[in-house]
Amino acid sequence: MGYLSEMAVKFKLDKTQAAILICGLYIFFSLAGNIAATKVTYFGSMVMDAGFIYSLTFTWRDLIHKQLGKRAAITTIWLSALINLSAALYFQLVVLLPAEPSWAGSGGQAAWEFLFGIINPGAGLWWENILSLQSRIVLGSIITALFAELIDTYVYQLWTSGAGRRRPQWTRVFVSNAVSIPVDSILFPVIAFTGILSMDALFQMFYTNIAVKAIVTLLAFWTIYLVPEKPIYTEDA
Question: Which pLDDT value is given to residue 155?
Answer without folding.
Answer: 93
